[in-house]
Amino acid sequence: MTDLIPTLDPRDAFYTVIGLALFGLTLQPALGRYKLFNLPLIYVIVGTFFGGVAMAVIDPLDGGLQTLVIEHASELIVIISLAGAGLAIDTVGNWRNWNAAWRLLGITMPLTMVAVYLLGDHWLGLTIPGALLLAACLAPTDPVLARSVQVSPPGEAEEPMEVALTAEAGMNDGLAFPFVYLAIHAATYGVAQATEGEAWLWGWLGFDFAYRIVMGIAVGWAVGWLFSKIVLSPLGDGGQGAWNAVVTVLAVTLLAYGITEAVDGYGFLAAFFAARAGRARSRGKAEDDYTKFVHHGADQLEAILLALLLLWLGTFVGSGALAGLRWQEVAFAFAMILVLRPVAGMIGLWRLDCTDMSRRAVAFFGIRGMGSVFYIAYAQNHAEFADIDAIWRIAAVTIVLSILIHGYAANFLLGDEDDTIGEVHPSHEHEDAVDDGHRGTPRAAE
Questions:
Q1: What confidence score (pLDDT) does residue 427 get?
Q2: What is the CATH number of the domain that holds 115?
Q3: pTM
């Protein structure tokens, strides 16, 4: 009789939970209209309760393979998210149109980094390398979880606030990653040796800052320009029915990222600017509708990966990652979301020609997420940080609070927008384009 009683196999539970998580994405368009609906938060909570039962706990604090898994999983979702962001923005990226984004990058982000570093060093008791890493990983606006306050799919109306946040999230890697490298150098060689003499300064400014940024932009744009030309030609997917839009966005994005990293440029910048090059080629032309196929493919890939990573974040939090959490760290996380970024944002946008509500919204919605996870995992895999446990703990609390506070703030303050975990459904116009494409006559080929 006992042989007839089914046993709970962790593998079966894993497939069941993942299947339910992915199916939940299909319900988002209907449930997203309810202001209390916060899908990322739901996934984190589910991961917290099912961690260790339905999902294996991947703990980056153990180092080795587990940290590598988290590094590359978060790396992949950021790459795809950046490509989607680059494709989505219709507003031409000049100095005037993207003025708010330049201010966020040049003023707000450095001010946030300085504030986080000083609090990490003097209040949280982190080492100098640890405080540098915390500043570098928490200063950037996340391109993944910030999708709920960013621009809509290509071809739809864009608000200046949305353009500012999307462009900022697309480009802030160029400012964050040099400081990740600075933290790695300080942890590896010691602060005194890492900053001894002028050679380190010029090496850091000349290589980690100037060279890597320039190569990221240049190589990314070149790859995007070349391959978008092929894709939109009679030989490419744009002229052959648009059946492979998901494969196309993944292929071009990985090519831009891989080639750029091979020449020591910043691959995240390359992913964003490759998409911008493709958007520049198609904007306002007959091929414009094909961009919607590719953007939708990027969003679906991003949604799948984000569902998995949010479940992981829940398992990580629920498996003891917050052990040793201090009230100062919780207070810092609240201050990061409610004080540091908003104040730095208001300073950066001071005297900008926009409404007060737009200025306050852009200053406030500096969402933290998977980009921070990647920076910490990357740094941990390249150097020994004495306080890496505290850095993970503080970042995890900050990300969860960001999901909670920013998620509900977007629902209640920004109208009836969907709570997005990546755009998981096309607009009606996009659906028409997809129907045409599946009949073999995409608008891009008309």
A1: 39
A2: 1.20.1530.20
A3: 0.87
